[in-house]
User: Which sequence fits this backbone?
């Protein structure tokens, strides 16, 4: 008798279990959230209207190699055509890698690239950090794209291996008379303060 | 021969900050050598050094400045004495200043000339070497 009940139980289970599985499975689609195709695009209508009115690029990157072999890459949060000509960009980062192995990282609030595309002017506060260990701040800096030349348009201040430095201006160029060698020249009057470490 | 010189006024605290002013500073990106050029003025406390060109030489770990190598006509002055020479090397840590090449040292009215002047700024003493010739003005106390 017991064996008979057991097999009857198994028989019933063989029917009930698959049915309940099927039931559970079907409710899956009932409770699922409806996928709203419109919400997939993260742009609001206002932004779309603004974009139509004013064409711009987000996260543009500009890269190039200068005549003497230095690679320059400039990235920004946003770039749009400037009023008169060329393009203007905001929160810009630039990186200059010279063939002598050194590299310079620049970051600035704003940048304007001229129409000819050979000069990028970084302004509204430029931070420069050079692999020779110099971290300098200046108001604006002009970065040429055709030859390796980064020139600050105003006074710079900051510090480097020798100590705290202030100068009337600053320039990164190829060393005159020594092609392949690059120098960081502080000009227009330099003042350095070095605090000796007490031995 | 050699003449020892007392540098009374030259007791120098070599842990004072060193200030260097020049027309420009050129740093070689790859090697990091820094050269000041164009009427360079080095000042530390009373010690004043003027030269046409000063090269910064770093310590081995590259963090601190080991020596300032001045060249192209150097004049050194402090509270009481003044010295001129072609070149000078100032080792900041040890505080000694070595002036070489037609050195002329003036202390008050007396003047001493020679080829090499080694000054220990901490102790305030100096020795002049190489064809030393001195001129005293009697009664200059």
Assistant:
């Amino acid at each position: 008798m017991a064996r008979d009940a057991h097999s009857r139980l198994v028989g019933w289970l063989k029917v009930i279990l698959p049915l309940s599985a099927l039931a559970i499975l079907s409710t899956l689609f009932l409770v699922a959230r409806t996928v709203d195709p419109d919400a997939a695009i993260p742009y609001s209508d206002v932004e779309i209207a603004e974009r139509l009115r004013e064409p711009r690029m987000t996260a543009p990157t500009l890269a190039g190699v200068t005549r003497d072999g230095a690679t320059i890459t400039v990235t920004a949060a946003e770039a749009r055509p400037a009023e008169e000509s060329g393009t203007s960009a905001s929160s810009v980062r630039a990186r200059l890698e010279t063939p002598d192995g050194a590299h310079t990282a620049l970051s600035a609030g704003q940048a304007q690239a001229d129409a000819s595309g050979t000069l990028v002017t970084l302004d509204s506060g430029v931070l420069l950090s050079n692999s020779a260990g110099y971290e300098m701040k200046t108001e604006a800096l002009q970065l040429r794209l055709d030859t390796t030349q980064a020139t600050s348009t105003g006074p710079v201040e900051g510090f480097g291996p020798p100590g705290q430095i202030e100068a009337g201006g600053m320039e990164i160029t190829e060393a005159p008379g020594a092609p392949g060698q690059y120098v960081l020249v502080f000009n227009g009057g330099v003042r350095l303060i070095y605090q000796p470490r007490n031995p | 021969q050699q003449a020892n010189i007392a540098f009374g006024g030259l007791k120098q605290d070599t842990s004072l900050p060193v200030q260097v002013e020049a027309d420009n500073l050129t740093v070689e990106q790859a090697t990091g050598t820094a050269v000041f050029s164009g009427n360079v003025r080095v000042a530390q406390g009373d010690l004043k050094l003027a030269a046409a060109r000063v090269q910064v030489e770093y310590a081995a770990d590259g963090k601190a400045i080991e020596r300032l190598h001045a060249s192209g006509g150097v004049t050194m002055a402090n509270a009481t004495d003044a010295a001129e020479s072609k070149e000078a090397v100032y080792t900041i840590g040890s505080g000694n200043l070595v002036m070489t090449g037609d050195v002329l040292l003036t202390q008050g009215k007396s003047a001493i000339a020679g080829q090499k002047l080694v000054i220990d700024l901490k102790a305030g003493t100096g020795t002049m070497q190489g064809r030393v010739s001195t001129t005293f003005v009697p009664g200059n106390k």
